[in-house]
Design brief:
By secondary structure, this protein is an all-beta fold. The chain is built from 1 helix and 60 strands.
Length: 589
C-alpha cells in the first residue's frame, strides 16, 4: 500500500482547502459507515505525512463524508466516486457496498475509495497512469463481471488481474470489444466519464460514455418532432441527472445526448431503463416531468398534478415516520411552491403529497437537490431550517436559519486592515436577521462573519450588492465611505450610502413577484414603496451566483426578463444604492 499512498499524495494536488482549526483526527461518517451518521470511523494518520490519512473498512451502500475532530465545523464532501476532491461542506459522497482501502488528504481534500478486488483498469487514460490500477467492482449476480464509473483521459488502457502483468487483457477495439491475454492497449479516443464493464471469463468489455453537456428528447411526441431535440436541464447536484417539465403528445420519443452523439430508448412507460439505440418509448399525451440519468439510463415520466397538501415526514421531523409536518402553499406559486420554517433532527426525511405514500419524493442530496418520485431518503443534519419544495419540478432547499449573537465585518479593507478584528453591525429591532452599519471607511477585501469566529462566515465576488454564501470568496470593496445592510438569513448584502435616520431597511414582504413561478418574465410590483432613480435588479441562484443584472428607472411595476435562466429557485436583489430588498422566486417551464 506504500506505493498507493505515494501515488495518491501526488494525485489532484490542485485545490488547497483553508482550514482555520488544527486537525487532530479525521474520520469517515455517514449511512455507509459502521457508525452511521452518529459516530466517526477514525482513519490512521500517516507517520511521514500529517495530511495523509488511511483506513481499511467494510462499507454498505449509502453515503459518507470526511470530517475533522469528530465535529461538523470542518468536513469534506463531493459528488465524485471513487476518486475526487472534497470541499468544505460539500455534498455527501455516494458509496456502493464493498471492502475498501481509503486514502484522504486533509490539505487538498483529495480522496480515493479503492475497492478490494482482483480486477483493475490501468493505463495512460486512467487517473494513476501506468503506475497503478483503479480497482473495479465485482458484480453480485455474476462473479465474472466487473464494473466501474470513472473519468478517463484521451489515451490507452488495459484490464489486468491482481495488480500485476501476469494476466492482462487488451484489444484495438473501442468502445466495445473482446480483450485477449497480452493483447494490445485499448485506445480511448475521447475523454469523459465512462461506465466500464469487463468480463474476466470471456474478455468482453464495454466503455459507455455517461458524461454529456446536453441531454434532451426527440420524437413525434415532442413539439420539435424528429427534427429538433427538446433540451432537458442538468441538475446542479448530479451532472448525470437531467430533468424538465414538458407538454407531450401521444407518440414516441428517445433521449439524445449532445445532439445525437448518443441515443437511448426503451419500451416501458411511464418509467423504465433505457438502452443505447433502444426502441422508441411510447408516450401518452399530457404535461410531464421527464427525468433521465445518463449513468444508470433510468428514466421516468411523472405527471404534473395539483395536490391538496405537501408534507415532510421522517425520523428527522417531530412527527417521525408516522405523521407529516405540512408545508404552507406559497401565494402566486401556481400551486407548486411549498415552504415552512421548522426544527429538524439528525436523520432522514422525504416529501409526500396528501399524507399518503402513493406520491412521495426523495433524493440523496442535502441541503439542496432535485427529488424524484419514490427516490431515496434525504439525509438531514440537525438545525432550524426554512424548507422549500416545488411539487412540479421536485426542487428542494433546506436553508439553515442562523441568528448569531453578533455579526461583524472583517478584512484587509476595514480601517484596521485586519482579518482578526471585527467591526460589529447593529441588529434591527424589528427583524433579527437584518444587521446594519451606519458609516465606515473601506478599501479592499472584506467578509461578514458571526460572533467573531470563522465557523460561520459569508462572502461573494459581487459589489455593491450580492448574496454572501458560507465560506464564499472575499468581497472586493473600492475605496469609499459606506453604509452597510446585511441579512444573516438570506446572505443578502448592500454597500450603499451612509445610513441616516431617513434610511429604511425594506422588508421583502413590501414587494411582490407577481409571476411566481415565472416563465420568461418576472413582474415585480413595487407599488408599496417609493423606489426612485436608477434601480438595479440582480438575480442570484440558490448558490449565490449572479445570473443576470438589469438597471431600470424606478416604477410601480418593473418587468425582468428571465428567459435565459433554467428552472429553479432564485433571488432578485433590488437596490437604488441606499436600500436592500430581496425577493425569492422560481422558474418553471
Amino acid at each position: 500500500m506504500m506505493k498507493l499512498r505515494l501515488l495518491f499524495s501526488l494525485f489532484l494536488m490542485i485545490m488547497v482547502v483553508s482550514i482555520k482549526a488544527q486537525i487532530t483526527t479525521v474520520g469517515l461518517i455517514g449511512s455507509a459507515t459502521p457508525g452511521g451518521w452518529d459516530a466517526d470511523t477514525d482513519m490512521v494518520q500517516d507517520p511521514d505525512s500529517s495530511n495523509l490519512w488511511t483506513m481499511s473498512v467494510t462499507l454498505i451502500a449509502g453515503e459518507a463524508k470526511f470530517r475533522a475532530n469528530d465535529l461538523w465545523d470542518v468536513n469534506w464532501g463531493d459528488i465524485a466516486f471513487p476518486l475526487g476532491v472534497g470541499t468544505q461542506n460539500g455534498p455527501n459522497i455516494s458509496v456502493p457496498a464493498g471492502d475498501y482501502y481509503i486514502t484522504f488528504n486533509s490539505n487538498t481534500g483529495a480522496y480515493y475509495f479503492s475497492v478490494i478486488s482482483d480486477i483493475g483498469i490501468i493505463g495512460s487514460a486512467t487517473p494513476f497512469g501506468w503506475d497503478n490500477d483503479v480497482n473495479m467492482f465485482q458484480s453480485e449476480s455474476d462473479t465474472n463481471v466487473y464494473t466501474l464509473s470513472l473519468t478517463l483521459l484521451i489515451g490507452e488502457a488495459k484490464f489486468r488481474q491482481f495488480d500485476a502483468w501476469d494476466i492482462n487483457w487488451g484489444s484495438t477495439d473501442f468502445p466495445t470489444g473482446v480483450g485477449t491475454q497480452n493483447g494490445p492497449n485499448i485506445p480511448i479516443p475521447t475523454g469523459g466519464e465512462y461506465y466500464v464493464t469487463f468480463n474476466k471469463s470471456t474478455g468482453e468489455y464495454n466503455f459507455q460514455l455517461i458524461s454529456f453537456s446536453t441531454v434532451g428528447v426527440i420524437g413525434d411526441a415532442t413539439a420539435g418532432g424528429w427534427g429538433t431535440v427538446t433540451p432537458l436541464t442538468q441538475t446542479a447536484q448530479n451532472p448525470k441527472q437531467f430533468t424538465g417539465i414538458l407538454d407531450l403528445g401521444d407518440g414516441g420519443l428517445q433521449f439524445s445526448g449532445d445532439n445525437g452523439v448518443a441515443v437511448w430508448g426503451g419500451s416501458d412507460f411511464p418509467s423504465g431503463v433505457a438502452s443505447a439505440g433502444g426502441d422508441t418509448i411510447p408516450v401518452t399525451a399530457g404535461t410531464w416531468r421527464v427525468n433521465f440519468n445518463t449513468q444508470t439510463q433510468a428514466y421516468s415520466f411523472e405527471p404534473i398534478e395539483i395536490y391538496g397538501s405537501i408534507g415532510i415526514i421522517g425520523d428527522a421531523t417531530l412527527g417521525g415516520w408516522d405523521n407529516d409536518t405540512d408545508l404552507e402553499l406559497q401565494p402566486n406559486s401556481d400551486s407548486s411552491l411549498w415552504q415552512l420554517r421548522l426544527e429538524l433532527f439528525d436523520g432522514e426525511a422525504k416529501f409526500r403529497a396528501d399524507n399518503d405514500w402513493l406520491v412521495n419524493w426523495g433524493a440523496g442530496d442535502f441541503p439542496t437537490g432535485i427529488a424524484l418520485r419514490d427516490g431515496p431518503n434525504i439525509p438531514i443534519t440537525a438545525g432550524e431550517y426554512s424548507v422549500t419544495f416545488n411539487s412540479f419540478t421536485g426542487a428542494y432547499n433546506f436553508v439553515l436559519i442562523v441568528v448569531p449573537d453578533r455579526v461583524g465585518l472583517v478584512g484587509s479593507g476595514t480601517p484596521t486592515a485586519s482579518w482578526d478584528v471585527d467591526f460589529f453591525l447593529t441588529q434591527s429591532a424589528t427583524d433579527e436577521n437584518v444587521w446594519t452599519y451606519n458609516s465606515i471607511d473601506l478599501n479592499g477585501e472584506v467578509k461578514f462573519r458571526a460572533d467573531g469566529a470563522w465557523t460561520v462566515n459569508w462572502g461573494a465576488v459581487d459589489f455593491p450588492s450580492g448574496v454572501g454564501v458560507q465560506e464564499g470568496p472575499n468581497i472586493p470593496v473600492p475605496q469609499g465611505t459606506y453604509g452597510i445592510t446585511f441579512n444573516s438569513n438570506s446572505g443578502e448584502y448592500v454597500f450603499g450610502d451612509p445610513i441616516t435616520s431617513t434610511t429604511h431597511v425594506l422588508d421583502p414582504s413590501s414587494i411582490k413577484a407577481i409571476s411566481n413561478p415565472a416563465n420568461d418574465v418576472v413582474n415585480v410590483d413595487l407599488s408599496a414603496i417609493d423606489m426612485r432613480g436608477n434601480v438595479t435588479l440582480n438575480v442570484y441562484d440558490i448558490n449565490g451566483k449572479l445570473m443576470l443584472s438589469d438597471v431600470q428607472q424606478g416604477a410601480p411595476l418593473m418587468k425582468l426578463g428571465v428567459a435565459g435562466l433554467s428552472n429553479g429557485f432564485y433571488t432578485v436583489n433590488i437596490s437604488n444604492g441606499k436600500y436592500i430588498i430581496g425577493k425569492k422566486f422560481s422558474i418553471v417551464r
